[in-house]
Amino acid sequence: MVLGLETSCDETAAAVVRDGREALSDVVSTQIEIHRRWGGVVPELASRNHVLQVMPVVDEALERAGVRLRDIDVVAVTSGPGLIGALLVGLQVGKSLAYAAGKPVVGVNHLEGHLLAIRMDEQAPEPPFLGLIVSGGHTSLYAVEDYGRYRLLGATLDDAAGEAFDKVARLLGLPYPGGVEIDRLARTGDPKAIRFPRGLNKRKTNDFSFSGLKTAALYHVQQHGLPQGQALADFCASVQEAIADVVTRKAVAAAKEAGLPRLVLCGGVAANSRIRELAVERGAASGIHVHVPPKRLCTDNGAMIAVAGYETFRRGGGAEGLALNANPSWRL
Ligand code: ATP
Ligand code: MG
Ligand code: FE
């Protein structure tokens, strides 16, 4: 049984996972309300709130799973990438619990967590597959050749997809996290109302760029003023369409090129309704099977860290023991 801990950004999460894929509990305490008044995540506030939340969250995860600390075989904790102060909170708690229980501790890469979260979904494919990670800090394409064997095929050169959603939302005066608000408002909007740029779309590259979209959104607001009512819905639908268009097109093309018959959507932005819809549609047109996980597996959680920790431990991870350190810019 693995206890997974996640504190890399603004979610304090803990979970108990059996046999590497069965979540017995999965407790997530989000700091969204705390950061909302600042319009984004404030690192120092994140660290302080992880300190307050982490033990209650761990206790609840153990209790809901019906286990004690001594029943845990391995403690898995996100050790990067993420906010350094936030990471250190989970890391110290993870190491302390492991020490107290006399069990090993393994450091997990948050992105590997996102890629392997689907292991908890019975319908999910096994490797090899192409993982599209679209999240608050990342937009990357990974060939998942096997557990522990990941090949980076492309990534964003500037902002992440989630960052693009959140920054445009902030420009429009929408509350954090803006991706969710844009998704909601877009439902009644016309995606063809404004033609926003699709970064690097015409080029034969697996890399992404969202800075042009952000600038175009800013210019549009400067010229036409802040959209209201139907114009706001149209603006949101158009921004969402631009992001969904480029990520799904590139992901399906990369899967074909790499000879991977399956595509898996991962990360918080994979909760976006248009990305989910368009990925399936484009996959079907290109003979690529697209796996769309339930939304709870897309956003940050502790169970995905336990799953990745199980795999990391099986392939010999955890050798650092209590010398394990955080690596805020750890590349998978
Ligand atoms: P990373 O995983 O890169 O370290 P993170 O952990 O902060 O970053 P996640 O929690 O995986 O990121 O995802 C959060 C992001 O997902 C936010 O940018 C948020 O706006 C976005 N998001 C969540 N739901 C939706 C949605 N329905 N549509 C668009 N974006 C969404
Ligand atoms: Mg988050
Ligand atoms: Fe994440």
TrEMBL record:
<dbReference type="InterPro" id="IPR000905">
    <property type="entry name" value="Gcp-like_dom"/>
</dbReference>
<keyword id="KW-0012">Acyltransferase</keyword>
<comment type="similarity">
    <text>Belongs to the KAE1 / TsaD family.</text>
</comment>
<feature type="binding site">
    <location>
        <position position="300"/>
    </location>
    <ligand>
        <name>Fe cation</name>
    </ligand>
</feature>
<keyword id="KW-0963">Cytoplasm</keyword>
<feature type="binding site">
    <location>
        <position position="179"/>
    </location>
    <ligand>
        <name>substrate</name>
    </ligand>
</feature>
<dbReference type="GO" id="GO:0005737">
    <property type="term" value="C:cytoplasm"/>
</dbReference>
<feature type="binding site">
    <location>
        <begin position="133"/>
        <end position="137"/>
    </location>
    <ligand>
        <name>substrate</name>
    </ligand>
</feature>
<comment type="function">
    <text>Required for the formation of a threonylcarbamoyl group on adenosine at position 37 (t(6)A37) in tRNAs that read codons beginning with adenine. Is involved in the transfer of the threonylcarbamoyl moiety of threonylcarbamoyl-AMP (TC-AMP) to the N6 group of A37, together with TsaE and TsaB. TsaD likely plays a direct catalytic role in this reaction.</text>
</comment>
<keyword id="KW-0479">Metal-binding</keyword>
<feature type="binding site">
    <location>
        <position position="272"/>
    </location>
    <ligand>
        <name>substrate</name>
    </ligand>
</feature>
<dbReference type="GO" id="GO:0002949">
    <property type="term" value="P:tRNA threonylcarbamoyladenosine modification"/>
</dbReference>
<dbReference type="InterPro" id="IPR022450">
    <property type="entry name" value="TsaD"/>
</dbReference>
<feature type="binding site">
    <location>
        <position position="114"/>
    </location>
    <ligand>
        <name>Fe cation</name>
    </ligand>
</feature>
<dbReference type="InterPro" id="IPR017861">
    <property type="entry name" value="KAE1/TsaD"/>
</dbReference>
<feature type="binding site">
    <location>
        <position position="166"/>
    </location>
    <ligand>
        <name>substrate</name>
    </ligand>
</feature>
<feature type="binding site">
    <location>
        <position position="183"/>
    </location>
    <ligand>
        <name>substrate</name>
    </ligand>
</feature>
<dbReference type="GO" id="GO:0061711">
    <property type="term" value="F:tRNA N(6)-L-threonylcarbamoyladenine synthase activity"/>
</dbReference>
<keyword id="KW-0819">tRNA processing</keyword>
<keyword id="KW-0408">Iron</keyword>
<protein>
    <recommendedName>
        <fullName>tRNA N6-adenosine threonylcarbamoyltransferase</fullName>
        <ecNumber>2.3.1.234</ecNumber>
    </recommendedName>
</protein>
<keyword id="KW-0808">Transferase</keyword>
<feature type="domain" description="Gcp-like">
    <location>
        <begin position="23"/>
        <end position="306"/>
    </location>
</feature>
<feature type="binding site">
    <location>
        <position position="110"/>
    </location>
    <ligand>
        <name>Fe cation</name>
    </ligand>
</feature>
<dbReference type="Pfam" id="PF00814">
    <property type="entry name" value="TsaD"/>
</dbReference>
<dbReference type="InterPro" id="IPR043129">
    <property type="entry name" value="ATPase_NBD"/>
</dbReference>
<dbReference type="GO" id="GO:0005506">
    <property type="term" value="F:iron ion binding"/>
</dbReference>
